Amino acid sequence: MLGTRLRLKDRGIFIRIASKSDYGRVLKFLQEHFYPFDQSSHGRVSNRQSREDEENEMKSIDSGASVLAFTDDDRRELIGVSLARKFREEECREGLKMLRTLSGQRGYPNDLDGVIFTEEMKLRSQICRRYNIEEALYLALTCVRRDYQGYSLAKLFMQKRLQCGRELGFKVAFGLAVTPGGIKLTEAFNFEDIYVLKFVNYCDYRGLSVYNYFPPEAVAKIVVKQI
Fold it and tell me: Which of 178, 1, 210, 39 is nearest to 109 (CA)?
């Protein structure tokens, strides 16, 4: 399969676009290297994908804008995954409908994921109206195997996803940045912050801490960029 060979420091890397045939391999990689360390509340509890996560990952892998990195040798070990997928305005309407249903439940949103979901659904609708578009490129998760972190793979992933997005006809890309590294990366690519949530000492409606192990300055940002 066509891809790009790179030399990063002392290691050879092979990068290519993901396809349907990669689904099982990507799913296993995320089970081993992403969800056990996921900093969202559902990840901390389950250490695995939900059914909704898996459905979204399948859509992303087949989007034409998701990127995989491998060792450039005979073994071709998967060392990094960066997912992106098409988001349509009609999905936003469905999300807002779901939000109205959830809002009728006692205490919702009852965790940080719920807060971010609530704000993100509202903002996605605003993004479509703001840029007069019906669809945008949603930048989902990026995960690099620990022994390959520090090789600028996240930067390469971002460049490739935005390039693919442009080639696929998208005019706008957006996503959620939670970690300091993710926030720094979106700043380097001149993304605009359209929502900032400070979650230090955040507790859900039951008074249970959710993200207290983050430093006091930690925030979550929803960001957008014209591509």
Answer: 210
